[in-house]
Amino acid sequence: MNTLSEFRSFTGRLEDTDVLMPALFVGHGSPMNGIEDNAFSRRWAEKGKEIPTPKAVLCVSAHWFTRGTRITAMEAPPTIHDFYGFPPALSAVEYPAPGDPALAGETAGLLSSAGPLLDHDWGLDHGTWTITRHMYPDANIPVLQLSIDHTQTPGRHYELGRELASLRRKGILIIGSGNMVHNLRMMNWHQPEGAYDWAATAQERFSTLIREGDAAALAHYERLGPEARLAIPTPEHYLPLLYVLGLRGSNEPVEFFNDRTVMGSVSMTSIQIGAAGA
């Protein structure tokens, strides 16, 4: 158990920069995107070149759903293969990016209201490495993960995102990794491209609210109609979006990319908060 005084001992170790790092929400979709050369993975690689090179990456992954908030704090986080039924080539992938225990401590200090724990047992799951291995293929930038506390409300996750905002000025790229529309039970394996009508309606509603900056409505997604409830049958893939929306400053631009839906019910729609090199 880490004490609040231990967290505070890290505060201020990272210096501010002249650049406000953008923040990303990335629709990660199938783990196969981690090894495939396709439109989605190519756009991730382009993003890695378009935005400033970060000092480190902090990823909120849909695939680390915990009781309480945890932050990876090891020197060398392992690559986690948290899936089954895929080709052996996917399970053979290793992404040996270093960790950053000092950044983990400083992040914990920013989130002290959540009573976070520094974690030495998890690593980088496919919600993280399938994206970062395209953005930063040399694995030479430290990567940390932040878990999603399933006991908290969506609004609380948005507030935790706001508490992390100062990291953007310190050169840290924060990524929320999930999918806005994510209903695996209703996937149409015979329709690799395109959305069900309800999925398209839900995605357009989410996108409009993001453009309008209405985070309160997005935090209460269950009130956005039956289409939204179909889009989010369980919250873990949606909640990373709220962290990223919490990072948005007043009047900051939002760019949409990979704005497509696959197999009827999985949206790859992604957003960038802030301008590259702002």
From TrEMBL:
<feature type="domain" description="Extradiol ring-cleavage dioxygenase class III enzyme subunit B">
    <location>
        <begin position="38"/>
        <end position="259"/>
    </location>
</feature>
<dbReference type="InterPro" id="IPR014436">
    <property type="entry name" value="Extradiol_dOase_DODA"/>
</dbReference>
<protein>
    <submittedName>
        <fullName>4,5-DOPA dioxygenase extradiol</fullName>
    </submittedName>
</protein>
<keyword id="KW-0862">Zinc</keyword>
<keyword id="KW-0223">Dioxygenase</keyword>
<keyword id="KW-0479">Metal-binding</keyword>
<keyword id="KW-0560">Oxidoreductase</keyword>
<dbReference type="GO" id="GO:0008270">
    <property type="term" value="F:zinc ion binding"/>
</dbReference>
<dbReference type="GO" id="GO:0008198">
    <property type="term" value="F:ferrous iron binding"/>
</dbReference>
<comment type="similarity">
    <text>Belongs to the DODA-type extradiol aromatic ring-opening dioxygenase family.</text>
</comment>
<dbReference type="GO" id="GO:0016702">
    <property type="term" value="F:oxidoreductase activity, acting on single donors with incorporation of molecular oxygen, incorporation of two atoms of oxygen"/>
</dbReference>
<dbReference type="Pfam" id="PF02900">
    <property type="entry name" value="LigB"/>
</dbReference>
<dbReference type="InterPro" id="IPR004183">
    <property type="entry name" value="Xdiol_dOase_suB"/>
</dbReference>
